[in-house]
Design a protein that fits this description.
Blueprint: E1 11-12, E2 20-23, H1 30-42, E3 47-50, H2 56-67, E4 71-74, E5 81-85, E6 96-99, H3 104-114, E7 121-124, H4 135-144, E8 147-150, E9 159-162, E10 171-174, H5 181-189, E11 197-201, H6 209-221, E12 226-229, E13 234-237, E14 247-249, H7 258-267, E15 269-276, H8 287-293, E16 297-303, E17 306-313, E18 321-324, H9 332-339, E19 346-349, H10 361-371, E20 376-379, E21 382-385, E22 396-398, H11 404-413, E23 420-422, H12 435-443
Parallel strand pairs: 2-15, 3-14, 6-7, 10-11, 18-19, 22-23
Antiparallel strand pairs: 1-23, 3-5, 4-5, 7-9, 8-9, 11-13, 12-13, 15-17, 16-17, 19-21, 20-21
Helix pairs in contact: 1-2, 1-3, 1-6, 3-5, 4-5, 5-6, 7-11, 9-11
Length: 447
């Protein structure tokens, strides 16, 4: 049944006027931006971050660090360049409340810094954030000696962390099956703990391992002695100073490139993303290979010491059968939008942890694909998408679920399905505040 738009504020997804021919610069990586903000705040000397993403998630991180007493100053002529100056004595302000919004990196990375506060720190956030699990991270901090008091459901926001009066040994065992951010949140600040940590993951699976490798790489960049024993699911961080170089450049967000590069497969033509790093720890670095598997022509063209990623397509999209996406689950919504129009079914597997993201992304993707007349089913560790004839798909108002990647997923569907609207396109401000303008520019249509 066709679902008509009943929301006057809904955004009308634009349709392509012809094959694409676009060059789309992508702002800085949210994952790297918030990791480097935390590492800069853990140091003792000022750090200048260049290419910082300015979005809701990074603004929440900046506000959280400032609440703890970190001084962060933006360049007047370029707000993507900021100077970070941590308290010189290594003690953060306690008896404060931090607003995490819906940012997993804030709610899971900042508690490690709060272990060095001079009083209790309360963490709160959006009501939808109350559904995002926190227990494994906080259990790890408790094992170190922190006192945690929950003000609602056990294991979730809001909660108050009181720093240890007496630190236990640094041995921690947690089950991080629900999110790699639990491990990253501990690794980022572990060297500031008196004994460092020996961290053991006890779960059967470990999602988003590339994100953990990104964290390890960033921590090493800050001069910390860290060893990763991935086979044993164990990480060792030595106690010691944290200090990033004075100037740190931040790569473009390669996962945010997915809707734009993927648009070439939906509308035909070519899309280029400049400043693609030759080597990266971002899971989004796997995107060009995925698009090639789907049938696109992908070229990595040398461009002033970096690469230009160019994706060209005639609109043909191949199904992938059983496809393990565990290494880059955050790309799943963009790939799902493409697979709706593929020439064969696909089962995206290894992404069960997406149920604990901004929303239950697996359930949301299935709901919205089926809403337009497509066919998708939820699996224990992923989703199955079975393409239907395109003429069977129909207009609908799609929900964003306060999830930026669900909003961009809906915009992608609008490239092939007439009459797609999105109930809250503004949720893209979480990581891509200029998304609407960028999308219209991609399609060469007026706002």
């Amino acid at each position: 049944m066709t679902t008509d738009s009943s929301n006057s504020a809904a955004w009308q997804a634009p349709e392509p006027v012809g094959p694409l021919n676009a060059n789309v610069p992508i702002p800085g990586s949210k994952s790297l931006s918030n990791r480097y903000l935390v590492l800069a705040a853990a140091g003792r000397k000022s750090v200048e971050l260049r290419g910082l993403l300015r979005s809701r998630d990074t603004e929440l991180m900046i506000s959280a660090l400032e609440t703890l007493g970190v001084r962060i100053t933006a360049n007047h002529s370029d707000p993507t360049t900021v100077r970070v100056e941590a308290p010189s004595d290594g003690r953060y302000q306690g008896n404060v409340t931090i607003d995490c919004g819906l940012a997993g990196t804030v709610m899971r990375f900042v508690p490690g810094l709060a272990m060095s506060a001079d009083g209790p720190v309360t963490f709160d956030g959006d009501s939808q954030a109350y559904q995002r699990p926190m227990a494994p991270l906080l259990d790890g901090l408790r094992q170190l000696g922190a006192d945690i008091v929950f003000h609602g459901q056990q294991g979730y926001l809001p909660f108050t962390l009181t720093p240890p009066q007496h630190w236990n040994s640094g041995k921690i065992s947690i089950d991080a099956s629900a999110s790699s951010q639990f491990i990253s949140g501990l690794l980022l600040t572990a060297s500031t703990f008196p004994h460092g940590i020996i961290l053991k993951h006890t779960g059967k699976r470990l999602p988003s391992l590339p994100h953990i490798r990104m964290t390890v790489d960033d921590v090493k960049h800050a001069g910390v002695q860290i060893k990763a024993h991935e086979y044993q699911r164990e990480w060792l961080v030595e106690p010691g100073p944290v200090q990033l170089p004075f100037i740190v450049g931040i790569e473009p967000d390669l996962s945010n490139a997915a809707p734009f590069l993927g648009a070439a497969l939906l509308a035909g033509g070519s899309v280029e993303v400049p400043h693609w790093p030759e080597h990266t720890t971002q899971p989004g670095g796997l995107l060009p290979g995925y698009l090639q598997s789907l049938g696109a022509k992908v070229e990595m063209i040398p461009d002033q010491g970096q690469l230009l990623c160019k994706v060209t397509s005639d609109g043909t999209i191949h199904g992938l059968g059983d496809f393990d996406l565990s290494a880059a689950g955050e790309i799943a919504p963009s790939l799902a939008a493409l697979l709706v129009f593929a020439d064969a079914p696909t089962r995206m597997l290894g992404i069960g942890h997406l149920r604990g993201h901004e929303t239950n992304r697996l359930a949301a993707l299935v709901e919205e694909i089926n809403r337009i007349g497509g066919h998708a089913e939820e699996l224990p560790e992923g989703i199955a998408i079975t393409p239907v004839p395109q003429e069977s798909l129909h207009p609908a108002e799609l929900r964003s679920y306060a999830d930026h990647r669900m909003a961009t997923f809906a915009a992608m569907l609008g490239l092939r399905v007439h009459g797609i609207t999105v109930d809250d396109i503004g949720t893209t401000s979480k990581t891509l505040p200029e998304f609407v303008d960028m999308w219209h520019s991609l399609l060469d249509v007026k706002n």
